[in-house]
Amino acid sequence: MDARVTDWNMVERQVREFVQGETRWLPALSNVSALLAETLTDVNWVGFYVADALLASGGSATELVLGPFQGKVACVRIPWGRGVCGTAAERDQTLRVDNVHNFPGHIACDSASRSEIVVPLHANGRVIGVLDVDSPCLARFCEEDQRGLEACAAVLEALW
Q: How far apart are CA 47 and CA 33, in angstroms?
């Protein structure tokens, strides 16, 4: 069995438990970043970036601001449309990057990161943040990981 195989059904159930009855997004995102960091193998950063418009209670987003995470010190602000996170937010689509060094405009917060997956989070039909997971391994993330992380993101969207 591949050591990177994750029981995504179990992870999604745990995320649902974190969200059930919770009225604030900060504690839920904090617990989910810890859960994913403990559950996923071969990852070196797991966390969230939140749209500045959400933090300012409205308006149009111009950048993503660091939210709860597990890992080394990270970039605090990422412009909308820049790097993997900003591009995923701008395009409103999950980006699975096998080699971040080949991604135009990649922002290297941790030089050890080699692959990355970023999943947009939504509220009221607009992107309000992203879930970001980095790995020191090339091509760490597969379609199953993408589906699992997207399912977790969909559960988290109930917080907004």
A: 5
Q: What are the Cα distances from residue 108, in Å, to 21, 102, 114, 159?
A: 37, 12, 10, 30
DSSP assignment of 130-148, as one string?
EEEEEESSTT---HHHHHH
- Interhelix angle 143-156/8-19, rounded to 10 degrees, is 10
**8-159 carries CATH number 3.40.50.300:** no
- Name the token pair of 124: 């009221």
Q: What's the pTM? A: 0.93
Please give the DSSP secondary-structure letter assigned to residue 9. H
- CA-CA distances (angstroms) from residue 46 to 94, 100, 115, 157? 15, 15, 12, 17
Tens-digit pLDDT profile for residues 54-98: 666 666 778 999 999 999 999 999 999 999 999 999 999 999 999
